[in-house]
Amino acid sequence: MKDLIEKLLLKNRTIVTSDVSECMQILGDHYSIHMHSFPSGEEYQTWPIPPEWNVVKAELKDGDEIIANYEECMLFLAPYSKSFTGTVSKKELMEHTYTNPEKADSFLYEFRLAYNYQMRLQDWRITLPYERVEKLSDGPFQVDIKVETKPGEMLIAESSSSGSEGYWFTFLAHYCHIAQANDGLAGVAVMFETVKRIKQKYSITKYGYKALAMPETIGSSVYAATHEEEIDKTIGAVFSEMGGADARLQFVYSRRGDTYVDRVFLYVLQKRGMLPCRTIPFRRGWGNDELVFDAPGVGVPVVSLDRYPFERYHTHFDNMDLIKPESLEETVDILMDVVDVLEVDYIPIPKNRVPVYLSRYNLYADWTFNRDQYDINILLLDNLWSGMSVLDIALKNNINVDDVFGYINKFVDQGLVDVKTVSPDYTRQVRFLPDFLQE
Question: Could you tell me the pTM of the whole model?
Answer without folding.
Answer: 0.96
